[in-house]
Amino acid sequence: MKKNIKTEKKHKYDKGQIFVKVMAGVLALLMVVGTVASLVYALI
C-alpha cells in the first residue's frame, strides 16, 4: 500500500511539473511574440 501511495504522489507531481513547463513555454512564446510585434511596429 505504501508503494501505491508513493506512486500516486509522484504521478500528481509529474502532472504539476508538466503543467509548469507548459505554462513557462506559453509565457516565453508570448514574450517573443510581443518583442517581435514591437520591433515590427517600430520599424514600420
Describe this structure in words.
This protein has one helix at about 1-44. It has one helix and no strands. It is about 95% helix and about 0% strand. The protein is rod-shaped, with a radius of gyration of 19 Å. It has about 45 residues and is mostly helical.
What labels would you give this structure?
44 residues
What amount of the residues lies in strands?
Answer: under 5%
* Average pLDDT: 84
**Spans of at least 5 consecutive residues with low confidence:** none
The count of strands amounts to 0
Q: How would you describe the shape? A: rod-shaped
What's the topology here?
Elements: H1 2-43
Task: Sum this structure up briefly.
The protein has one helix and no strands. It has one helix spanning 2-43.
